[in-house]
Design goal:
Blueprint lengths: L8 H7 L4 H30 L2 H29 L2 H24 L3 H11 L5 H12 L5 H31 L3 H19 L24 H28 L6 H19 L8 H16 L8 H12 L2 H15 L5 H29 L7 H24 L7
Helix pairs in contact: 1-7, 2-3, 2-4, 2-6, 2-7, 2-8, 3-4, 3-5, 3-14, 4-5, 4-8, 6-7, 6-14, 7-8, 7-10, 7-13, 9-10, 9-13, 9-14, 9-15, 10-12, 10-13, 11-12, 11-13, 11-15, 13-14, 14-15
Length: 405
Amino acid sequence: MRVISSPLAPYARVLAVPGARGMAVSGVLARLPVAVIGVSIVIMVAARYGSYGLGGAVTATQTLCYAVFGPPLSRAADRLGQRRVVVPASLAAVTGLTGLVVCGSLRAPAWTLFGCAALVGLMPNVGSMVRARWAHLLQGTDRLHTAYAMESVVDDLIFIVGPVLAVNLSLVAGAEAGLVAAAVLLFTGCRLLASRTATEPPVVTVSERRGGVLLKARGLWAVVAVCTAMGGLFGSVEVAVVGFATEHRQTVLASWILALYALGSGISGVLFGRRRLSWSVPRQLTAAAILLTLTTAPMLVTDNLYVLGGVLLVSGAACAPILILATGLVERLVPPERLTEGMTWISTGLGAGVALGAPMAGWTADEYGGNRVFLTPLLCCVVVTLAAVMGTRRLSAAQHPAPGR
C-alpha cells in the first residue's frame, strides 16, 4: 500500500485512531451552535422587538453565563464523567433556546429573554471535552500536538461558517430559524458525543484527586492571561473592522475581511500542527506573541479595506499557533484528572476578553474613528506579548510532563 505523503497526512493518522472520527464529528456538531447563537439572538430580537441594543444585551447575558458556568460544569465532568454532565447541560441549553424562540414569536416581555439566555449559557464546553478526549487517546505521543492544531482549525472554520449559516437561515426560514438550528445541532452533537464512551477519559476516584483552586497551578495564570488578551483581540478586531468599513461606506465587505482573518489563522494552524519545533513551548509562545504584535501594528496606517484584508490575513496567521501552544501548556500544567476544567479556562479567558475588547473598540471608534480604531487590537496584542514574556520563566519551570505524557 502506498504511504500517504501529503500536507494533511499527520491529520489523517490522528483521525485513524479508533473512535477518533466519530468523536471529532460529534464535537463539530455540538460546537457549531456556539458560533450560531450570538448572531441568531441579535437577528431574532431586532426583528421581533426592533432593538439591536436589546439583542446585544441578551447575547451578552448568554456569553457571560457561558463563561461563568463553564469551569464548574467542566469540573463536574472531570469528577463524574463527561456523559453524566454533557446530556443534562445540553438539555438545559436547548430548553433556553426553545424559550427564546417561543418568547420571540409571542413578543413576550423583554425580561423573559434574559432568563432564557441565562439557561443557554449552561451549554457544555464541548471544545474542552473533545480536547481532553484527545489527551486521553494520544497521551505520550507527538500526535497530540497535531490533534490540538486540528481542533484550533476547526474552531476557526466554525466561526467562519456559523454566522453565515445564522444569517442565511434567517433570510430563508424566518428570524427564529437560527436558534432552532442551534438547538437541533446542540442536542444531536451532545447526544452523539455522550454515546462515544470508548474515547471518554476515565473518572478519577476522590482519593486520587488533587484539590484546590486550579488557577493556582503554577504557570496557569499566564496561559489564562494570554487567552484573555487574545479574546480581547478577537472582540476588538471584529468591532474595529465593522466600524472602519462603515466609515468607508463599504459595510458589506466587513464580513469578508473578517473571514480573511480567520482564514489566515486556519492555514497557519494546519501548517503548525504538522510538526513540532525544537524550541521550548514557552519560547514558541513568546515568539508567536511578538509576531502577532508586529503584524497587527500595520493596521494603524492602513487607509484601504483591501489592504486591511491583506494585513488581517497575515496577522491572523499568528493567532492559531498561540492558541495551540496555550492548549498544550494547559495539558502539561494541570493534573490529568482536572484536564477538562483546565481546558475550559482557555475558553473562559477568551470569552471574558471578547466581552472587554468589543466595547473598548466601540468606544475608540466613537471617539477617534479612522484607522485609530485599531489601537484597541494593538493594545491587546501588546498585553498578549507581555503576559507571554512575564510568564515564560514560570511556564518553563512548571511544564514538567508526568510520566508517559
